[in-house]
Amino acid sequence: MNYLSKSMMALCIATCLGACSQQEQYYVKQAIFPENATLEQKVEIAAHLVPTPQQLEWQKMELTAFLHFGVNTFTGREWGDGTEDPAVFNPTNLDADQWVRTLKECGFKMVILTAKHHDGFCLWPTATTKHSVASSKWKDGKGDVVKELRDACTKYDMKFGVYLSPWDRNAECYGDSPKYNQFFVEQLTELLTNYGEVHEVWFDGANGEGPNGKKQEYDWTLIYKTIHELQPKAVTAIMGDDVRWVGNESGLGRDTEWSATVLNPGGLPSAEAGNKALEINAMSKDLGSRDMLAKAKSVHWYPSEVDVSIRPGWFYHEAEDSKVKSLKHMVDIYYKSVGCNSVLLLNIPPDCEGRISQADETRLKEFAVYINQTFSNNLLKEGNQYWTAKGNGESKTYDLQPDAIFNTIMLQEDIAKGQRVEEFTVEAFVDNTWKEIAKGTTIGYKKLLRVDDLKAEQLKVTIKASRSNANILNVGAFYAAPIQNMAQVNEWNNLSRENWKKVSAQPLVVDLGKKVTLKAFTYAPAGQQAKPSMAFHYTLYISNDGKQWKEIPTTGEFSNIVNNPIPQTVQFKKEETGRFIKLAATTPDGGKATVELNELGVTVVNP
Ligand code: FUL
């Protein structure tokens, strides 16, 4: 059976999911509307469109990681032109174990590597071209980055994906369509046969050859058939037909984000024609409203993936070490991706050594701690009671933990039964009255809403409009601590933290980015809140090279910090010069204290 006839079968699958008295018809992945279907019929079909098991599993991952690595890492470019000498690829200390270990610790569930970017250089020793690691100096041409990553993923039980750029600026046959299709499918076959299970195959849509460049007609039918035969459980992304590009590289999902969308997925000419007729593409604002359903001939489960880099570029460039996104920016991205019915695909590019750089690792860890701390404590009682709501204004009330302050609301639909909610409100019971505190349109897999800090007895969720009954899986209320802007310069820190690097956590060693003359330093517990891991007794050291340390004479104690955790500034007896500082501190109980970069300030001469 060929791939197309298999997918046609998927259309006809009718199932009863969960406990239902009446047989309901569900459509897996796509449904073609009957001719002359009314809008109501189309809406009913869209409401019963469900993901494939692998699309559902993919959505639940929430956090996935991209690794852009290749010749660009060494040339400083973002797009190589294919003329690069393979000898430039020479990581001095490639450590795939460190990549995956770090990502695992930070909550990521899958890693996708640029096995080949637009420059055509292959990170595995392919038989299809000499333009690969086999011609590089790295490991005398005997290395295989894809294998090293695969082995680390197996070790850490991490899902594994490959990015294989359809656009190839090195391959001579690129543009000779049948020849290149064969070449590309051979590359794909190597990747999908020699490296165990592959969970996501990522095909970029970029092609910058321009009007006078080579025009390649891709054989998407053959490409998809190859994937379905070799890795039937993999999802295919972007030019693939399981996972949709959100439409920007800034980390921004839509407030109204439908996974049941009228965008025709994949690269087949029929899909392109369908989208042209609807005048839409992945960047369009509206991909699933009733207006769009009215115009469309079909509806597709094609959920959004938000791809964004932790740095300005996709590849590592040393000059961008100081431009790693701030914690605040990363958390905003989390709310606008995972919190907007999308999966976040965050790019963390390995450096010239072949490691995740210190600056990125530090930020990832801060991000993971923040997300864990925020979402590990649901302040709502019994938020996980399954609720089937009629979309005509039906409400459900939830009790909050007494005295709990919250500022984030989470709503989740049971998307195994489709995405249905079109409009909802959230009210809080404060001072004996119900007050609307949030409202929105779609929910989907997960919706996160920010509200002002609030203490309330109860929350009420109302489903004002829904396509068929809404299936609410989970509701939550959480407290997200305020985040200080790392770059912030204020009265207790006059040296921008943009160029700081955390060299070690315990004791806290900080590279201030340049040699400075210090007059004072400040410890400011985050959120001005006491916690058991905070610093109480300490010794402060200074150094020019991070190796030879000089102790700075101080009182050695943050007095009364537990009862009054406000910023404490320690003036030095005389000015001290250096680039590194080390704070070795113990907690009020005598354990090792943890001080974060944003809890430390310095007062320097001529900042
Ligand atoms: C883009 C590419 O051109 C970038 O280099 C990067 O790979 C990004 C994820 O997709 O379209």
What key phrases describe this protein's structure?
607 residues; alpha/beta; eight-stranded parallel sheet; six-stranded antiparallel sheet; 12 helices; flat; disordered N terminus; binds beta-L-fucopyranose
Account of the protein in words:
The protein is α/β, with parallel strands linked by helices. 21% of the residues lie in helices and 28% in strands. It is built from twelve helices and 27 strands. The protein has helices at residues 3-12, 39-47, 53-61, 71-75, 96-105, 145-156, 177-193, 220-230, 269-278, 290-295, 327-336, 358-375, and strands at 27-28, 30-32, 49-50, 63-67, 110-116, 159-164, 200-203, 235-238, 244-245, 260-261, 298-301, 304-309, 342-347, 387-389, 394-399, 405-413, 421-430, 433-440, 447-455, 458-466, 470-478, 501-504, 508-523, 537-543, 550-552, 568-586, 600-605. The strands form six sheets. It has an eight-stranded parallel sheet with strand order 8-7-6-5-4-13-12-9. Strands 22, 23, 24, 25, 26 and 27 form a six-stranded antiparallel sheet that branches. A hairpin with a 6-residue loop joins strand 24 (537-543) and strand 25. Helix 5 packs parallel to helix 6. The protein is flat and about 85 Å long. The model is unreliable at 1-21 (pLDDT under 50). Beta-L-fucopyranose binds next to loops.
